[in-house]
Amino acid sequence: LGNRLTGVFDKLRRRGALTDADVQEALREVRVALLEADVALPVVKDLVTRVRERAVGQEVIRSVSPAQQVIKIVNDALVEALGGGEGDDGKRGLDLNAPSPVPILMVGLQGSGKTTTSGKIALRLRTRDRKKVLLASLDVHRPAAQLQLQTLADQAEVTGLPIIAGQTPRQIAERAMDVGRRELYDVVILDTAGRLAIDEALMAEVAEVKAFVKPHETLLVVDAMTGQDAVNTAKAFQEKVGVTGIVMTRVDGDARGGAALSMRAVTGAPIKLLGAGEKLDALEDFHPDRIANRILGMGDIVSLVERAAETIDQAEAEKLAKKMQKGSFDLEDYASQLKQINKMGSLSGILGMLPGVGKIKSQIENANLDQTMLKRQAAIISSMTPKERRNPDLLKASRKRRIAAGSGTTVQDVNRLLKQFDEMSAMMKRMNKLGQKGLMRGGLG
Ligand code: GDP
Ligand code: MG
């Protein structure tokens, strides 16, 4: 996916500005990418339309390529569709703003992670929010279900409602709320039974409990790995039961996260939490920007673009990239690289944002390229003659001594710089081979 998109954007980059055709072409690929990430077709169509309207006719930011701009527009639309911008007022997480005990009803299909998530939320509320939490299982269908929840309650060090055989889900819910009131619990989490598939009996049972308890939060738990099915599940639960939020589990798997986008679009309910593992502490807040990245598969190119837009001079970057490709990258170019890097923050930080360059990044980090070093290196290069900068091979012992004296450094410093330069040239050749050409031309130079 990443490669596919990079390929398209590579093509776009070579032109001066975005044309209608450019945008159409990029969006054709984006469409496929989104579908591959499990985003539902109507949602994809809607998103693509929105991006097209926004992209065509938009003024091209001078310092980034049109292609990078498209990435950013697609990304921003994704973040928006996932609920970005909400939650600054604390709305995104669980809403406990109600009289105690606040009832939370967990609903969803069997195996989606309801019971586990109940335990996770209980643990978080107890430890982070200092809440007194009561856990109650309304799952009377599977004999082991209530014991499973009690085990999790023990692990989370919260109370589980004592199990009484023969009660209906509604009776258990009633008892839980009673205990919650009498014993002054802050939150009562009601874990319901699931079925393997949506059926009327399940919906009726959940709806009855819901009508009785009037939960402040009704959280639909869905398995991210089920892709399109998750969306159908979410739709059915929203229509038949009504939910206030979604918890997406198994995001620790390799699902692309497209289901999140679809569920959000289809139900209108916010995604509130993510389950990222079997352990009780594997509960995460939902960050629209992170999921957008995961869906688009473009690493953190967007933030690279944001920073590059402010600092990088496109023409200079292109000139440097050409030289690099021809292998005629010299110390003069290295010096102007250093200047760019200085403007943008650390080099390893920049490299870290590009997908697929993790290995090179650690090499750079090992080379200990910090800001002081960058400044010293710039001083050394400015003490060289233009001829020396173009041809570092000229630099024998006596010249090195002169340069060291001129820049207030030592011969070791000069040697270190030359070694660094060699490594950098080699690295850039490798990066070109890695297929990051487009990026380098437009961004890093
Ligand atoms: P329920 O039937 O909806 O109550 O689902 P359970 O809570 O019993 O979970 C079913 C299985 O999924 C269990 O083995 C859990 O350990 C596992 N599980 C739940 N949440 C997650 C998660 O976020 N990641 C992973 N990898 N496994 C999970
Ligand atoms: Mg369960």
TrEMBL record:
Localisation per UniProt entry: Cell inner membrane; Cytoplasm
Entry domain remark: Composed of three domains: the N-terminal N domain, which is responsible for interactions with the ribosome, the central G domain, which binds GTP, and the C-terminal M domain, which binds the RNA and the signal sequence of the RNC.
Function text: Involved in targeting and insertion of nascent membrane proteins into the cytoplasmic membrane. Binds to the hydrophobic signal sequence of the ribosome-nascent chain (RNC) as it emerges from the ribosomes. The SRP-RNC complex is then targeted to the cytoplasmic membrane where it interacts with the SRP receptor FtsY. Interaction with FtsY leads to the transfer of the RNC complex to the Sec translocase for insertion into the membrane, the hydrolysis of GTP by both Ffh and FtsY, and the dissociation of the SRP-FtsY complex into the individual components.
UniProt record similarity statement: Belongs to the GTP-binding SRP family. SRP54 subfamily.
Region (Disordered): 386-409
GTP-binding is among the record's keywords: yes
Subunit structure of this chain's protein: Part of the signal recognition particle protein translocation system, which is composed of SRP and FtsY. SRP is a ribonucleoprotein composed of Ffh and a 4.5S RNA molecule.
Reactions mediated catalytically: GTP + H2O = GDP + phosphate + H(+)
Pfam family, one: SRP_SPB
Membrane topology: Peripheral membrane protein
EC number per UniProt: 3.6.5.4
Lineage of the organism: Bacteria, Pseudomonadati, Pseudomonadota, Alphaproteobacteria, Acetobacterales
GO biological process: SRP-dependent cotranslational protein targeting to membrane
GO terms assigned for molecular function: 7S RNA binding; GTP binding; GTPase activity
Species assigned in the record: Falsiroseomonas algicola
Occurrences of domain SRP54-type proteins GTP-binding (ranges): 270-283
PROSITE patterns: SRP54
InterPro entries, per the entry: AAA+_ATPase, P-loop_NTPase, Signal_recog_part_SRP54_M_sf, Signal_recog_particl_SRP54_hlx, Signal_recog_particle_SRP54_M, SRP, SRP54, SRP54_GTPase_dom
UniProt-recorded name of the protein: Signal recognition particle protein
